[in-house]
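Hey, I'm writing a tutorial for new members on how sequence and structure tokens pair up, and I'd like a real worked example in the thread rather than a made-up one. If someone can provide the structure for the chain below, I'll link this post from the tutorial.
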Amino acid sequence: MRERLEAMNWAVVGLSLAMTFQSRAEAKVVDRIVAVVNDEIILSSEVNELVEEEMDRATAEFPDEATRELKAKELRKEALNARIGELVTSGELKKMNVAVRDEEVRQAIDDTMRRNKMDEKTFRQTLKSHGLSWRRFAMQIRRDLEKMRIMQAKLESRIKVSDQDIRSYYTRYVTSLAKDARIRLCQIHIALDAKMAAAERERRVKLADEIEIKAQGGEDFAALVKKHSEGAAVDACGDVGWLSRGVLAEGFERAAWRLKAGEVSKVIRSAKGLFVVKLKEREAPEVKPLEEIRDVLRGRLLLEEQEKQFGIWLQEARKKAFVDLREQ
């Protein structure tokens, strides 16, 4: 191993010297080794290429130089660790005498184009629009296939999904959909102020009770808004628009979300005064029965478990590999 490292170091030194003695009119390009994994080297230029697209986005997102520099360090560290993981994986495959052939990579690319109903020219243009070259995409496909080989050879027995796992996932799925629900409210607002005289406060409380009775009895809600409501929503007939969960004050929200479409609430007391609200519409994502989407959920869980187990395996494999990290 020591001899290989010395040979690689001298190769890079030789390359650097050769470039140094170019004509002074030419730009000098000096590369350096940032990591060694077993008998493979990772050059700084490789890492630069990996983070190039993300850095373009960071430059646009973070205008100040200090933040960009910090983001650049984070991106380089992530890219370098990812590249080390790729070389550890390919090294393990070499030990197993397993290789991903060029024909397999091409077949996977062809399958991707066919699924997306694109010819090669259109697909290349699509990759370019997403900041990916054909070569970079092919490299990604190769890494995915290598990961698949490792999972098939070493991790298949670890990757299991039970019926209980699927039921638990379904419960989380239904809960997440509930968070996406929205309601559209119309409201009548009667303001209350601590500085008001007791008689005026009493009059307003009585008025709110009367409005509740009229609205629940079927009287035109928009007409009641125009006649009695205070606040910006009056001009919109009391319509406050679409609201997601967690937007309203706790007591207000609890009362509003209990309503059915077209139903009118009792008087709701809040820090801003008294409200009578009508649920105009309710919008909720469709919740499909478990049996209808069981296979889909199982597939998602399998993918999650595969990623988890591969991550555990990679950590173990990296500890056993020779890794000389020269850029912190």
